[in-house]
Amino acid sequence: MNQPAHVHEDAVARAEFTDRWSKTLIGTPQIPTAHGFNLGVAAYTSLQFGPEQVHDDQEALYILSGIGEVRVAGKVIAARPGLAIYLPPGTPHASRRTGSEPLKVLYTHAPA
Fold first, then answer.
1. Looking at the domain assignment, is residue 3 inside a domain?
2. What 8-state DSSP symbol labels residue 4?
3. Cα torsion angle, 31, 35, 40, 46, sign
4. Could you give the CA distance from residue 40 to residue 7 in angstroms, rounded to a whole number?
């Protein structure tokens, strides 16, 4: 059975990619969840769109800081703090920063 748990972003190692870094905070062996739910943060550091991501599950994004763009199924959406985006399963997407700071995103995945 899952128990309440907490973690600070600073305590989690980040995974490095060509266009971003990310940290899965919840939905890990340290903080398991039910039904495949997870939550994490990513910072898009590249001025160029990275490789498109496609997932079998549904994903939601929430822009925390920075200015950038998110390409969703070929459509480019201007991204700034406060924007929320829902991505159904199988939706290709990529992000990039357009400002001087990384585009920091809160993401969550859940089964469809």
1. no
2. -
3. positive
4. 11
Domain count, the chain: 1
Question: What phi and psi values does residue 9 have, to the nearest 5 degrees?
Answer: -50, -35
Is the residue at 53 inside a domain? yes
Q: What is the pTM of this model?
A: 0.94
pLDDT digits (tens, 9 = 90+) for 14-56: 999 999 999 999 999 989 998 889 999 999 999 999 999 999 9
Strand, coil or helix: 11: helix
Q: Quick check: is 7 in a domain? A: no
State the sign of the Cα–Cα–Cα–Cα dihedral 76, 77, 80, 84.
Answer: negative
| Structure tokens, 69 | 């763009």
53: DSSP letter: B
Residue 87 lies in a domain: yes
Taking the alpha carbons at both ends of the chain, their separation in whole angstroms is: 22
